[in-house]
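Work through what follows:
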Amino acid sequence: MIDLEGAIAEIKNKDNTETFNKSFHSLQAIVDNLLAHGTYGLSALKTLLGAIEGDLGDGSYGLAALQALLDAIAVELGDGTTGLAALKALIDALEGKLDNGTHGLEALKVLIDAIETKLDDGSSGLDALKALIDAVEGKLDDGTHGLAALKALIDAVEAKMDDGTTGLAAIKALIDALEGKLDDGTYGLAALKALIDSIEAKLDDGASGLDALKALIDAIEAKLDKLAGETPVSGSVTGNWQSGTATSGETGADVVTIGANDTRKKLHSLLLSIHNFAVSAKVTVKLFMQLNGTERKVYQEDFNKGTDPDGLWVVNGTLGIHEALRVEVQSNRVADNGVALHYDYMLEAM
């Protein structure tokens, strides 16, 4: 701005009377003086414009840098992934999410309403939760089962543990005593181990140990198994009892051979049934067995059909045999030829 006040002050003299000098006080002279002023005249203005021009041409922050920045911003805004279009697509997607009936604002509002309903529910909502908390607090404050009672119990346990007679110290003393006993060379762990080793040696002994005991048990089991006896044998045989010739060469026929040579057996019973024989027939039962290698008749007995029972209990007590025992039968009636004779016997192995 033109300094008019300064110009007027130059025209006035000290006693405030105006003097006029054309070379200094004319308007043209004042304008010329102002334009030529070194601080804010044309020269200073030119210097300022030059500085502004230099700043505008600066590569870091001038017009070119500003243009590059604007170009970069334009590129970013036009980018399909991160620019305005992408931003708009993102906003549209967010709006779609918010408008979605299942997951949007309406659905969120429904969910919030449901949560509020749950919280307001008298059975399971906030009031019920508060009632539960109050009940828990009541339990904790209960003098019999609450925190105070638990503390009293803990104090009692601590007192028991601190007791010199039955507490931890007493238990430690007992453990120490037990350790002393276990370490004792006469009846402690070492002595127990020696005893166990001795017992193991006895059990491992071939003559009197577990193996020998097992062998003895097996032998006893074998003996006991024999006591049950062999399966009883029953059958029938047809022969010419009156006209035939048996193995011995005598009249009659063979019935059955019981046992085997050189095999020990117990014969508990031998029964013969002559129910098919003729009435009044004389039936002779004969038993044969080896004696010193030669077969001999060792038994013979006559029975009468009709007088004696049809079932003949030939052996009715335990009889030990070690050779084959052969049974022959003879009848004196021709009518008995070809009839069947039944037998039954029971053996036990020895």
User: Anything to note?
Assistant: Residues 47 and 89 are 52 Å apart (CA to CA).
